[in-house]
Amino acid sequence: xxxxxxxxxxxxxxxxxxxxxxxxxxxxxxxxxxxxxSIIFRAQGYRLRLSAQGLDAxxxxxxxxxxxxxxxxxxxxxxxxxxAIDPLTGETLGADVPSVSNEPLTSRDGKVVGISRGxxxxxxxxxxxxxxxxxxxxSGYESTSAGVxxxxxxxxxxxxxxxxxxxxxxxxEVARQLSDGAIKVYDxxxxxxxxxxxxxxxxxxxxxxxxxxxxTTQPNGGKVFLxxxxxxxxxxxxxxxxxxxxxGSPGVIKxxxxxxxxxxxxxxxxxxxxxxxxxxxxxxxxxNMVESxxxxxxxxxxxxxxxxxxxxxxxxxxxxxxxxxMTPAGGNGANTAVQDxxxxxxxxxxxxxxxxxxxxxxxxxxxxxxxxxxxxxxVKQSYNQAxxxxxxxxxxxxxxxxxxxxxxx
Length: 409
Prior knowledge:
- The structure is a single chain.
- This protein is an alpha/beta fold and 409 residues long.
- The protein has two domains: 7-42 and 123-185 and 304-390, FAD/NAD(P)-binding domain; 75-115 and 187-301, 2-Layer Sandwich (D-Amino Acid Oxidase, Chain A, domain 2), CATH 3.30.9.
- It has helices at residues 14-26, 52-73, 117-125, 173-179, 265-274, 284-287, 332-354, 363-390; strands at 7-10, 30-33, 48-50, 75-77, 82-85, 92-93, 112-115, 132-133, 138-143, 148-152, 163-166, 185-198, 208-214, 224-230, 241-248, 295-302, 316-318.
- It has a seven-stranded mixed β-sheet with strand order 6-5-13-14-15-12-16.
- Helix 1 (14-26) runs parallel beside helix 7 (332-354) and helix 2 packs across helix 7 (332-354).
- Mean pLDDT is 89; it is low at 96-101 and 405-409.
């Protein structure tokens, strides 16, 4: 008998690696293709808050032993919701203040559970290293008589696979081709900066998840907001840095030459400039930041009308930001992405047990029908929260996209 063809996974982000983990546990052959040179190639971004649904999805994939190791690696913070701090006065604002969100954050054991993106990727990839092909920039795919192949930017092709899972983020070439441009990701114009500082810089805040907003002293009536998570259990550990993420309304945060791939001191200088007049209670977060770890980021979002329809392909489907990009508001993106991985992994495992591991009959259709429901709701929620938090909005006629599709000749 011929060996079964592998499932080809495009991208080594969170959703891709977790679905790879699911395939590994089920004994289904797969290969992951990633454009970066290694897992530490790029800045890993802000700490991710995991919802109850996100944790349940990860647990379903990793199983009891694997999940316990993952959960032990997560940070846990007390407190049910955001606490707001006035950055100009240093005052902690009460829950009766209209600008303070009562959004529940706890997800398990009465704690706010979070983990850095880099640590999460390492956890998901552990034991799968030999299945990841680095330095492979996916530019599209092609169908064969009995399968599919990934196409790479250097003109080469992958081996033949039985299915392609596109998970390479908001600029996914697999998503563009599969949906014929129906999946649109909009640039909301807002920009942000990620930063880190030693735990001692956060002692003035105390334990909790904090949100700061300055909409009275920024140029041109702009707004700057900041979120951070302070875990009491790590407060006295000198080997740990806490992170924060800053966002600004359109035009407030500008990277040099509009190059948002720049990291380090240029981003740190802008963060310090925007907060130079803030209260001494919060200034240490910026005065003591690890400048080399500072990084810019863009706020993007899929269409708030929801995940669009496209003709189903039984051998090609999408997970994570490739199909439903979200703003950071509400922490929906990563949690929805891991739900994709758990659902698709389960459906593939069921088909494999039935002996349908060559054609995968009905799997992508069943997955996409269910994914569109919960992912569309998550995108809408994320977009609505972003409009209130930093004034973002999408006008399909005028808002720029970051994944413009050009049909092949």
